Amino acid sequence: MLRFLLGRLGLLIPTFIGVTFVAFTFIRLLPGDPAELLAGERGISPERKAEVMRQLGFDKPYWQQYLDYILGIFQGDLGTSFSSKKPVLDEFMTLFPATAELALCAIILAVCIGIPAGIFAAVKRGSIADQAIMGTALVGYSMPIFWWGLLLIILFSGVLQWTPVSGRISLLYFFPQVTGFMLIDSLLSGEKGAFLSAVRHLILPSIVLATIPLAVIARQTRSAMLEVLGEDYVRTARAKGLAPKSVIGLHALRNALIPVVTTIGLQVGVLLGGAILTETIFSWPGIGKWLFDSISRRDYFVVQGGLLLIAGIVMMVNLIVDVLYGLINPRIRHN
Amino acid sequence: MNFQKTLKATLLGASLAVIAATGASAKTLVYCSEGSPEGFDTALYTAGTTFDASSKPIYNRLVEFKRGTTEVLPGLAESWEVSEDGLEYTFKLRQGVKYHTTSFFTPTRDFNADDVVFSFERQLKKDHPWHEYTPGTAWEYFNGMSMPDLIKEIVKVDDHTVKFVLNRPEAPMIANLAMDFASVVSAEYAAQLEAAGTKEQLNQQPVGTGPFAFVGYQKDAVIRYQAHADYWNGKEKIDNLIFAITPDAAVRLQKLKAGECHVMPYPAPADIEDIRADSNLTLMEQQGLNVGYLAYNTKVAPFDKKEVRKALNHAVNKQAILDAVFQGSGQAAKNPIPPTMWSYNEATQDDDYNPDLAKEMLAAAGVEKLSMKVWAMPVQRPYNPNARRMAEVIQADFANVGVNVEIVSYEWGEYLSRSKDVDRDGAVLLGWTGDNGDPDNFLAVLLGCDGVGGSNRAQWCNDEFEALIQKAKTVTDKAERTKLYEEAQAVFKEEAPWATIAHSVVFMPMSSKVTGYVMDPLGGHWFDGVDIAE
């Protein structure tokens, strides 16, 4: 197992170097530059532009900027946002818990509903229930997040007034950020009603963010289950007279879960991508909106630092998935 | 459960201590702002969203715009005198003005001349210890307004008198000092931060003399302020001001309707009628101090001929643009300055929509089978909510007079950069929102000879026009300046470097409980003087 882990970790190194290069190059390849955007319609003279670029540290040759960036990474310094004038890592650490909390709730929702729905659809293959579940999943997968989010807000916050419109907690509550996870901080604050408020604020954004992963997981589970249910060993188990629950739960599901776990791992990237839209709709102060705004402003350090950190997280999650994969399927581990 | 009921119950039941240090009858106004401030040291930035959250609630300036107008009133300066030659501005400072006392700073003295000198010298002098106190301190507004060329020195005459010495007379100087970048920060607080080695905190934890003191900012979520108890102009009626950052316009409206906020800016044009119909909401509206235009490149044939430019102006159906792009929230523009600005020339005759005349004029100018580019901005602006749509209408209009139009667009930074090129191919859709209510801020910036290759996208340098606006800079008598600017507008109309398109109307929806809100013609959002009915 240790060798397996070391092998996987070894693979992360070239990936990590590749990400630093791509993140660094990508933002600089985009047309436009921070000085022009800062000046806006007024415009900026070439001399003044050169001065601004020097003050921002973007007057050095690219190779030197890249080298500074890499050296900074090893010292835990990802640069300073020229917009907020704050260290990129500090901003990330402030905002990431909000995204993580939302993504975690969304993935839990997607897994808790997606897997049982997929199993049910597979077992009832061809039935109306199967078609309804798969049809709903297709709609969920195809639905534009922005439209879906607004629809839910208008219905549940506007018409029914069951949930708040946006934000992470009612503005009545004002307590210091300890962990950054509002569910935990609201409990730690001891403020009456704060936790409930945080939960209520999480409901709609979690549903919106979970929609696509849920659809993908449900479809993947159904497909994997159908494949496994047709295997000889499942037929044998049935022939032995095992209860259907045991056949599906013990024999079929464990093998069917292997591709599903991989799919769940891949959904982490999807969640972080979907977070940009979800965070914008629900005024959720996370890294998606932060990165989007930084790209618009050509805030180079934020974009390259933020992308690197997100890529690092996705890589770590995929490593964990690989390990889980090995645990579920010993053949992978041994190979 | 009904959310509003829950909110009210929680309000009554929960300890109000959670809202920073307020009493039982604390009034809190929630403003659903459209974006996050980049920081709180106003002079570092150029964006209105940042100014709304920093300079307007937290700071004061030597002079202030009168609420809802561009008229300049005394602020931190009680009075001022201008020397005969227009080169010296001497300000008598207000005494007894208190800085905010916060959890991170306790002032030991009142506002004085040191603060004024510090606030400007850090922007002016490259060797000032605060000139580059944090990465990328470009002081872009100060530089963009050419203040380093204009200000020779700032002299502390005594503790309550400051003198600005200029390199040349500049009539808009007083209006410039009412702008956001001219906000006065505390030199004592800066010294405290410098001693602690935390200079960057000036941009994170601001201290000012303004109507509201900064309490806290949760990035991209909430900014909290508390009314300044010792405010020199009297304590505000509301006790707390909260900015709930809500980037999406549709969501802002839902929050307003649900009672989660009291005031919101920038509603979507499609929602205006819905807001009007809601009896719980009030919709304020005001002519924006802006202009949207199509700038020809007057350096490139055949647009170097004014007859061609005039002909094309006659081909533009402005009413169709107002209907399609502004959806009723715009007004056709005939001058390069908006009608709410002093010196607006009422007598100007606009180039009426007349495709037949346009064809005749083009033929007379010897122009046949003309093909040209029209540049469409990739972003929304108050002066142009949908540039692509506007370009399409113009494309159809020009096709009617036999001119073939290709619409081009670039990423915003690239658009701004390329559109400045003197040999640029095509006419550019762009616009301007005023900074200080002075006509010079439109006419000199957008059409002056200094702006060629920069903010003057028409690349138009006309001797007669230039002489008029340069003279108006040096004259202090407003009536005389008005006459000069009116003449300059007449020259502009005759020469037609632009097709003036529209001035937009700005809307501000709010709860009917909100009283005392006054819309700012310069587009800012101010909450001093605002109250909420019980």
Description:
- The complex is a heterodimer of chains A (335) and B (534).
- Chain A has helices at residues 2-29, 34-39, 46-56, 62-74, 88-123, 128-142, 145-159, 182-189, 194-229, 232-239, 244-281, 287-297, 300-328, 330-334.
- The longest helix of chain A has 38 residues, at 244-281.
- Chain A contains 14 helices and no strands.
- With 335 residues, chain A is mostly helical.
- In chain A, helix 7 packs across helix 9 (194-229).
- Chain B is an alpha+beta fold and 534 residues long.
- Helix content of chain B is 30%, strand content 20%.
- Chain B has 18 helices and 19 strands.
- Chain B has helices spanning 3-13, 48-53, 55-58, 113-124, 140-144, 147-150, 173-176, 187-196, 249-257, 272-277, 306-315, 318-326, 355-364, 387-400, 412-418, 440-447, 463-474, 478-495, and strands spanning 28-31, 63-65, 72-74, 77-82, 88-93, 151-158, 161-166, 212-218, 222-227, 240-244, 281-287, 290-295, 330-332, 371-375, 404-408, 427-433, 498-511, 514-515, 531-532.
- In chain B, strands 11, 12, 13, 14, 15, 16 and 17 form a 7-stranded mixed sheet that branches.
- In chain B, 51% of the residues are buried.
- At the A-B interface, helix 2, helix 3, helix 5, helix 7 and helix 12 of A face helix 1, helix 5, helix 9, helix 15 and strand 16 of B.
